[in-house]
Amino acid sequence: MAETWLIYALGGGWGHLTRALSLGRIASRQRKVKIITNSPYAYKIDHDDCFVYLIPENVNFSETCLQVRKILCNCHYDCLIVDTFPRGLGAELADILPKLDYIPRVLIHRDINSRYVSAKKLKSFVKENFNRVIVPGEGKDLPFCDLPMVDHTAPWLIRNHWELPDKATTRSHILRVSPSKKTILVCASGKASELTLFGELTLWLKRNFPDCAVRILAATCPKECPKELWVSHHPGIECIAAADVVIGGAGYNTVYECAAVRVPLVAIPLERLYDRQEKRAYKSYWVQNYQDATFDEQLLNIYAMVRRILDEAIPANSFPIPSYINGAMEAVRQIEQV
């Protein structure tokens, strides 16, 4: 009987689910993989041979915790992999993990707010309740990086470079733009409440860069945008790889996907309870002090960056997609050793 890995990937956006699928699609070649998620986007995408326990986003907090506990206590699994939150998003894992000492437990350590780590005494909890901690490309200055059971990989990506379609195909069939036209892609992959912001930004870019093709990549079309500017496609890295410049938040997937395919990202750090997007934004062109500036000041800053990138860039369509290392493949090997 094949072993089973269970991945805890709660979080309302794309990030946790995409990271879980990046690992799960590779791991599922040799075993069963199950994913617990409450992402509203799970309805819209292929699960890549992983079984998904989908907790509806509209259930209340206590019911979400109850459903997670029910799955963990009644489902068979040979390894538990927890993404980002050692005690669970609602602390629902705090009293369960000590009872699972007969099962290997792995924490995926993405960057999180150090105040949260200190307030909940998470370092000692991680040391006592996890066999291995894997850092998926986020550096060595994270809160748990000094623990003895830490391993590092390159960032996890949902596609290897040889799986991506060529740029001309993506532009003509998915983005619906001329292969030779410079293309600006707005990534609206965060909270649903931020869709209006990115919709307005898309229209503004369309007006101010009339010689470029402008598209917004989002699960839902913003009401501000005409349908011809909207692209709904998963995985988003295929669209990113075919763009000349990307504008989006500084979430995990957006930053590392752009870095992997070497497409410049103009990053707008967005406010998050646990994730420190402002810190990650240093890896890209950064719209600084975004929360404090007026909307007109923000637009001028974005315009200057995009103009500079487009003026200096050779059209993306002139080069093949570069090769890169997908850390999810190494992570599978590290978890197998546990």
UniProtKB/TrEMBL annotation:
Outline the extent of the Glycosyl transferase family 28 C-terminal domain. 238-279
Superkingdom of the source? Bacteria
Which InterPro entries does the protein's record reference? Glyco_trans_28_C (IPR007235)
List, alphabetically, the Gene3D superfamilies matched.
Glycogen Phosphorylase B (3.40.50.2000)
Gene Ontology MF, one: hexosyltransferase activity
Q: Which PANTHER family match?
A: GLYCOSYLTRANSFERASE, UDP-N-ACETYLGLUCOSAMINE--N-ACETYLMURAMYL-(PENTAPEPTIDE) PYROPHOSPHORYL-UNDECAPRENOL N-ACETYLGLUCOSAMINE TRANSFERASE 1
Protein name, as recorded: Glycosyl transferase family 28 C-terminal domain-containing protein
Source species of the chain: Tolypothrix tenuis PCC 7101
Give the taxonomic lineage as stored in the record.
Bacteria, Bacillati, Cyanobacteriota, Cyanophyceae, Nostocales
